[in-house]
# Entry
Amino acid sequence: MKTLNEFTEIIKKAGEIFKEGFEKKLQIHSKGIKDLVTDYDIKVEKFLIKEFRKKFANFSIIAEESAKEKFNNSIIIDPIDGTTNFAHHIPHCAISVGIYEKKEPKYAIVYNPILNELYYAKKGEEAYKNGEKIKVSNQNCLQRSLLATGFPYSSAENEDDLKWVINKLKHILPRCQDIRRLGSASLDLCYVAEGKYEGFYEINLKPWDVSAGVLIVKEAGGLISNEFGYEYNFFEDRCIVASNGIIHDEMIEILSKKV
Ligand code: 2AM
Ligand code: CA
# Structure
């Protein structure tokens, strides 16, 4: 796990910058009607890119606030996932880093520095949180399952996206225990991985929102797909569905319906 430790060390240092920003009154800028960015998204990202380039020069870097290089051997970074929470001083936000070799996920790290929760996985070697192995839940009944989702920023200007969100909620909410919308896709995936949630779905996410979480879910025994149950591709697919695997088909049945 040498390489994973090297990545983790850098991410923990970036976590110090993240924490410093969380305590402060922030300069908030807008990327879109709903999409925020703070000075600390930029600061954390710059630090990560600088350190990763020093140690992992043969990887390209894809990062939310700046570089978009080629996807092959790449480090895919979200410096602050859950930026809206961060900007409102809600401690549900994380640094997310997925490391891909030949387009396949190899290492994944999601770190919430505020709660000191570090999730990580290495391909084929299971998933961990702060050193303890994590597993998806074994709940087999959708009606007793806690699900999570998120609302795309595009819902402000794209009527189709807003309709999709409302329509899916209408059909899935009565069939599960309840739905949470906590605002950080990378942590939503980690919560599926450790069995807090049985499932998660969301549209319009970007590679950096999910690049780490997808490996953590799979290594914890869960399943990831698009809304039709096929392999999820974060460059192409609109919807991601994650689950403990057991309730997956029922989620797909509801999410894939054209209504
Ligand atoms: P962010 O905090 O990094 O912006 C909230 O629904 C979750 O989805 C967060 O992880 C948020 O990421 C992400 N998200 C929502 N809409 C998005 C969009 N249009 N592009 C990228 N990420 C989005
Ligand atoms: Ca972000």
